[in-house]
Amino acid sequence: MDFFDSAYRGTPPWDIGRPQKEFVELLRRGEITGSVLDIGCGTGEHALFFAGEGYEVWGIDSAPLAIQKAKEKAAGRGLPVHFLVLNALDLPKLRRKFTTVTDSGLFHTLSDEDRPLFVNSLATILSPGGKYFMLCFSELEPGGFGPRRITQKEIQDSFREGWSINYIRPATFESRTRAEGPRAWLSSITKK
After folding, report:
1. Which of 16, 63, 148, 187 is a Cys-bridge partner for 4, taking CB atoms 3.0 to 4.6 Å apart?
2. Which of 130, 119, 134, 55 is nearest to 97 (CA)?
3. Beta strands in 62-140 (DSSP E)
4. What is the b/e burial string over 146-162, where b = at least 16 CB atoms within 10 angstroms of the residue's CB?
5. Cα separation of 62 and 65, whole Å?
6. Domain at 35, CATH number
7. Average pLDDT, consecutive stretches of 10 residues, N- to C-terminus, the chain (192 residues)
8. 57-61 and 126-137 as β-strands: parallel, antiparallel, unpaired?
């Protein structure tokens, strides 16, 4: 993950300085519940947003510099978020369960080989009936720049056993590179 750690020496395109509007809307609609884990939290904007709304929140990222910046933001804002450097394939190391897990841009960075490992890792820390909300680049976004694109079928295939897909809907992944943002999928997936 050297690429990601080095990206945080500056401000990467996905670090927009606020939560993605899709996650703000999830909270406004009452879909964020209980304890929250933000996977691939970057500099912590989603985790800090949820903490500011009164949720118990943890944030993990494999990039140490991102976690350092997230901790500095939390201290500066006086928000109690548990930020840890941790690979998303090693979630059992958290030794706890969460009701809600959010993912803004992690899933689309995973290799085909790592996807099932991630789904198994996720299953260990999400309570039965808990929800995983994932925002990822859609195959409807033209290729070229940015992460790989994900199809609805790839999402369905990854979460076929032990999961129930509530919805996969078109969304926008806000970034600093384009005002309208790349096309994305927002998925709500419940652990059975």
Report:
1. 63
2. 130
3. 81-85, 98-104, 126-137
4. bbebbebebbeebbeee
5. 9
6. 3.40.50.150
7. 69 86 97 98 97 98 95 97 97 98 96 96 98 95 81 97 97 84 94 98
8. unpaired
Where in the sequence is the domain holding 37, given as residue range(s)?
2-191
What's the pLDDT at 140?
85
pLDDT of 1: 47
For residue 45, the SS3 value is helix
Q: Nearest-CA neighbor of 69 among 128, 10, 153?
A: 10
Q: How many CB atoms lie within 10 A of CB 16?
A: 17
What is the reported pLDDT for 25? 98
- Which whole-number Å values give the CA distances from 57 to 16, 50, 77, 100, 105, in the listed order? 20, 7, 14, 10, 18
Instruction: Give the residue carrying structure tokens 């976690």.
Output: 67
To the question of pTM greater than 0.70 for the whole model, the response is yes
